[in-house]
């Protein structure tokens, strides 16, 4: 991934978005209500200095995040990536989306999760840097 893609994805990787959103964006603006899948949503646009804006859509009734639209700068202009979050279920006392659909100009795909395990112990060895390969002998 290039630096613009890495920056754009970092928004989605934020585990505690509601707590971090004010730190991540220098300015937040609310836009007029819209409808997504027949539901009223509130749109919030986050602005960061020198970066493309990120649009968040929250269900007006449940306050759950239902869509994000982020942009990646390319030589041809801004490319949008839209992520729709659905199939929210309670897991460990927290509502989490078990399905998300990612749409880009080149296509779309859906990720469906059947099970989520939170706070599972992971062996540190899984994060060890691989050993460097030895150069082939002549």
Outline the secondary-structure elements.
Layout: H1 3-12, H2 17-24, E1 27-36, E2 39-47, E3 54-59, E4 65-74, E5 77-91, E6 94-104, E7 107-112
Antiparallel strand pairs: 1-2, 2-3, 3-4, 4-5, 5-6, 6-7
Q: What features would you describe in this structure?
A:
The chain is mostly beta strands and 138 residues long. It has one domain: Lipoprotein localisation LolA/LolB/LppX (outer membrane lipoprotein receptor (LolB), chain A). It has 2 helices and 7 strands. It has a 7-stranded antiparallel beta sheet, with helices on one face. The longest helix has 10 residues. The protein is globular, with a radius of gyration of 19 Å. The chain starts with a helix and ends in a 26-residue tail after the last strand. The model has no long low-confidence stretch (mean pLDDT 85).
Please give the number of β-strands.
7
Proportion of β residues? over 45%
Average pLDDT across residues?
Answer: 85
CATH homologous superfamily annotation: Lipoprotein localisation LolA/LolB/LppX
Which descriptors apply to this entry?
single chain, mainly beta, outer membrane lipoprotein receptor (LolB), chain A, 2 helices, globular
């Amino acid at each position: 991934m290039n630096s613009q893609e890495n920056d754009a994805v970092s928004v989605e990787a934020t585990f505690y978005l509601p707590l971090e959103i004010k730190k991540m964006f220098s300015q937040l603006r609310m836009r007029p209500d819209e409808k997504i899948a027949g539901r009223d949503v509130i749109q919030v646009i986050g602005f960061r200095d020198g970066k493309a804006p990120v649009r968040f859509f929250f269900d007006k009734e449940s306050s759950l995040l239902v869509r994000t639209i982020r942009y990646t700068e390319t030589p041809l202009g801004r490319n949008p990536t839209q992520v729709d979050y659905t199939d929210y279920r309670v897991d460990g006392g927290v509502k989490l989306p078990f399905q998300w659909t990612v749409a880009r100009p080149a296509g779309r795909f859906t990720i469906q999760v059947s099970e989520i395990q939170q706070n599972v112990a992971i062996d540190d060895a899984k994060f060890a840097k691989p050993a460097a390969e030895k150069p082939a002998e002549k």
